[in-house]
Design goal:
The complex is a heterodimer of chains A (735) and B (151). Chain A is α+β, with helices and mostly antiparallel strands and 735 residues long. In chain A, 22% of the residues lie in helices and 33% in strands. In chain A, a hairpin with a 2-residue loop joins strand 13 and strand 14 (264-269). Chain A is globular. In chain B, the strands form two sheets. Chain B has a five-stranded antiparallel sheet with strand order 1-8-3-6-5. The chains are: A alpha+beta (735), B mainly beta (151).
Chain lengths: 735, 151
């Protein structure tokens, strides 16, 4: 930047704006890049010299089969069975591809789409969609065409732009409604509605006010959009008065911090909301329904799911720029990716195939050089208010690995509800089997299963004898996935019995977290946790990470995620490696010259080797050296963290702090009396002050320049695929 | 802060037509904001409010100059704390002087929802406009309600 630019900047910054308005403007890119329509698929390298990395599951492999082969095979199998057209196809091998090519007909379309607004739909054709009866392509016209994700990672903070492209394939006006997930820590702070080349910034308002503005605009024929939060990781986008053949895009920007475990940072972008089980009487359910179901109504939030054999035209592109600050040693992903490396510290990664079905979390892990990772304090000071914000990533000392292991009391709590049926439950069982093999003499264990009720292996935890372990394996074999998810029963069974003080008690929930009453569960854990630690496993391809992360926070533990293709044994062994060494407990921090307040998490967790802890707060005064103290066994350990330079470009830190404050206040609503609405007001005011979407605030944007003709048309909920590995029959239909 | 000159205060009232709304007293209107300056403008800030307390801001749209690539930002406090809405909108550009707008330029469009039976009585203030060198410049601000936006 030149001196002139600096001078202009300084004058403008000092004169033009109040506090964070400019600050927001300085943060990151304004909006998502247009989708890259020329994305190559399945190539290991290209002429530009890019390094091609194809990954399947969690390991890097050479390019083999298209990942959707398994699903295609299942569709074809189902289609042929139901149609009686011939014998079921044999499962495809890894190097085979199945292409089913058919020509759609208008008559077929009209008969199949029970929620189509009208005839004359402009429908894209997908060669890998298969009609259950005829084997022809089954085309479901829906408004969401594309999601473009552009993320930039600086250190362990990511700035993510999501562009959702809605279009109207019907012959009358529609309102598009789309329930979608974002990371549970996402601080959603920007919202743009894009109509052609016009861009309209949305206004953050109290939720009811935003909804009223949207309804009024919709009813009067104005094009409008509304972004509402239903859970910290579940949002709803509404776009009104999309005219036939026209498009409206929406840009969302959010910030969040990355998790770090054993040398790996994880960037996660969820793509689909999993089906939720709502206990009877729950007042704010998220209801899974079949596409076109009459169950959809305005009283409940619904997730409409495509039926087996159906597919929408929604596809996704993901582009991630990483500037790790230290050398990146390896990249891994759950999806096929293409990566290029300009410097050892940076990488550019993109999803290899834009036509990837968005039915599982995109996870990008990058490993940094172990000896370069150090505890790191990042700060930002608001230039107007003088208020400082910090985020501290604490890496525990590695020499704890040499200390002795204490006897353990392991409690495994398996979700055996319908959504876990099949692969997810098998993965959970595999993980428990691996854990049983890690138990030693002197340890005790318990296995609890829950669905609509709970049962357990023994009346009390059993000693880890050979006979008892054999009994446990038999018990595991008997478990099946069916019924609803009364998780509260599992929580009570796991935490309500007396704790053996001679042992460290670890409670390990193994669940997809597909429940609608998260706040009740978090409250129950808070009330019962006492000395237990919760180390949970999110099992499946699109886990409810919000629930699992908050349970772990209350339980001063952590979460690991077990995808359908992951090795349960490896992940469980890694888990035991971590908990086998004494944690740094009773952690306290001497902040030196920093006058620190409103630190999250308020209750500092234990620190385990290989697992970093992120602490975020506000401060006044100057930054200086920080000392972290804790007990490692019977010894006191101290960790000194040197002061770092304040970075005024890190405006995102203030929003990340505000998001954590909102999360903390929301959790407290689970166990504190908020009759007078003090917590609710605190959430609302924090959200408004820091311009964040929350339970009480929403973004609304209206194009008041033009009123469209006629009534506002038909509401079209965006149907989505059930998450990969989840059975439609045992979730949507049973519900 | 120096050189923060209120260069022009435009007070205008706008008669808005009858709305075809479920609630007849609620109508929408898009207001184009124009900045007129003899010199190229590198930064600007204005405030818009309504004496009668009828308006709610429902969107801020980017102006016509390519030198300002972003959609302008609004002051959240002005929206949050106003009994009725007032809004402060600002933007700046680091583009070359040749690309900066001069003469009469649409710098933003403010989308509004108006309620109540009275006509709105808008106040539009230019708080500041600065040149390529960061110096305050004489400029004037005005608005036009888009034809067809009001119902």
């Amino acid at each position: 930047m030149t001196r002139r630019e600096l001078r202009v900047m300084f004058r403008v910054m000092s004169a033009v704006f109040v506090c964070a308005v400019i600050a927001v403007g300085c943060a990151g890119k304004e909006q998502a890049m247009p989708p890259d329509s020329g994305t190559p698929s399945g190539s290991q390298s290209d002429a530009s010299g890019m390094e091609g990395i194809m990954t399947t599951g969690s390991r890097i492999e050479s390019a083999r089969a298209r990942p959707q082969n398994r699903q295609l095979s299942a569709y074809a199998d189902l289609a042929l069975k139901r149609s009686g057209a011939g014998p079921a196809l044999a499962p495809l091998s890894a190097d085979e591809e199945l292409w089913v090519i058919a020509t759609p007909s208008v008559d077929d379309q009209k008969s199949r789409d029970d929620d189509s607004p009208g005839s004359g739909a402009m429908v894209a054709s997908f060669p890998d969609d298969i009609d259950e009866k005829t084997g022809a392509a089954r085309e479901i016209p829906l408004p969401l065409k594309h999601t473009a994700v552009n993320a930039r990672i600086d250190g362990y903070i990511s700035t993510v732009n999501v562009r959702q492209e809605f279009s109207n394939p019907f012959d009358q006006k529609i309102e598009a409604v789309y329930l979608f997930p974002l990371p549970e820590k996402a601080a959603v702070s920007e919202f743009l509605m894009i109509i052609g080349d016009r861009k309209i910034r949305g206004i953050l308002r109290e939720k009811e006010e935003a909804e009223a503005i949207y309804r009024e605009a919709r009813s009067q024929g104005y094009q409008a959009s509304l972004l509402v939060q239903h859970r910290p990781n579940v949002f709803e986008q509404k776009v009104a008065n999309i005219e036939p053949g026209k498009s409206i895009d929406v840009d969302i920007q959010y910030f969040h911090t990355l998790a770090y475990n054993d040398g790996w940072y994880s960037f996660v972008f969820p793509t689909v909301v999993g089906p939720r089980y709502n206990p009877p009487g729950h007042s704010d359910p998220i209801v899974p329904v079949a596409r076109g179901s009459a169950q959809a109504n305005e009283k409940h939030t619904t997730v409409p799911y495509l039926r087996p054999g159906e597919r929408s035209g929604h596809d996704i592109s993901i582009d991630v720029e990483i500037d790790a600050g230290v050398a990146i040693e390896e990249l891994r992903s759950t999806h096929e990716i293409v990566a290029s490396r300009a410097t050892p510290e940076s990488a550019t990664v993109r999803l290899a195939s834009q036509s990837t079905i968005p039915n599982r979390d995109f996870v990008l892990n990058f490993q940094v050089a172990g000896n370069t990772v150090k505890s790191n304090l990042m700060t930002y000071r608001d230039p107007e208010l003088g208020q400082g914000y910090f985020t501290l990533m604490l890496y525990p000392p590695s020499d704890n690995a040499s200390l002795a292991r204490r006897p353990m009391e392991m409690v495994f709590v398996l979700d055996c509800s319908g959504s876990m049926s099949g692969r997810p439950l098998e993965q959970a069982k595999n993980a428990v089997r691996a854990a049983l093999g890690q138990l030693r003499e002197g340890d005790t264990f318990q296995i609890i299963r829950f669905s609509e009720d709970s049962t357990q292996l023994g009346a009390t935890p059993l000693p880890a004898t050979r006979q008892n372990l054999q009994l446990a394996r038999q018990y595991l074999r008997s478990l099946r996935g069916t019924g609803g998810t009364q998780m509260i029963e599992g929580v009570k069974a796991a935490l309500d019995f007396p704790h053996d003080p001679a042992r460290l008690r670890f409670v390990s929930f193994m669940t997809d977290g597909y429940i609608g009453n998260e706040i009740d569960i978090i409250g129950a854990v808070h009330d019962r946790i006492r000395d237990s630690r919760i180390f949970s496993f999110g099992v499946g391809s699109s886990v409810n990470r919000y629930l699992l992360e908050r349970m772990a926070k209350e339980g001063r533990g952590a979460v690991a995620y077990l995808g359908p293709q992951d090795s349960a044994t490896n992940i469980m062994n890694g888990f035991f490696k971590r908990i086998s060494h004494p944690a740094l407990t009773d952690v306290s921090i001497d902040w030196g010259n920093m006058a620190v307040a409103d630190v999250y998490p308020a209750k500092l967790p234990d620190m385990f080797v290989g697992r970093a802890v992120v602490i975020t707060g506000k401060y006044l005064g100057a930054t200086g050296n920080i000392t972290v103290s804790g007990m490692a066994g019977s010894k006191t350990q101290r960790l000194n963290i040197p002061a770092t330079q304040n970075d005024n470009s890190k405006t995102s830190i203030s929003k990340i702090w505000a998001r954590l404050r909102i999360a903390d206040l929301t959790d407290r609503q689970a166990w504190e009396d908020d009759t007078h609405g003090e917590l609710a007001n605190a959430i609302k005011n924090t959200a408004l002050e820091y311009q964040l979407v929350s339970d009480y605030t929403s973004f609304v944007a209206v194009d008041a320049s033009r009123r469209t003709d006629g009534e506002f048309g038909v509401t079209v909920p965006q149907a989505v695929p059930v998450p990969d590995g989840v059975r439609y029959e045992t979730t949507v239909e049973q519900h | 802060m120096r050189a923060l000159i209120v260069s022009l205060i435009l007070m205008g009232s706008c008669c808005l037509g009858q709305a075809f709304a479920e609630d007849d007293s609620v109508r929408f209107s898009a207001m184009d904001i124009y900045l007129t300056s003899a010199e190229p403008v590198a930064a600007w800030q204005f405030e818009l409010n309504d004496h009668h307390g009828l308006m709610k801001v429902v969107g801020v749209e980017k102006g016509e100059s390519a030198a300002y690539a972003r959609v302008p930002y609004y002051d959240r406090e002005a929206v949050r704390l106003g009994e009725a809405d007032r809004i402060v909108v600002a933007d700046y550009s680091l583009a070359d002087v040749a690309r900066l707008p001069s003469d009469r330029t649409r710098i933003a469009t403010v989308h509004l929802m108006l309620s109540g039976d009275d006509d709105a009585d808008f106040n539009l203030f230019l708080i500041t406009a600065t040149t390529y060198d960061g110096l305050a410049t004489d400029a004037s601000i005005s608005f036009e309600v888009q034809t067809g936006s009001e119902q």
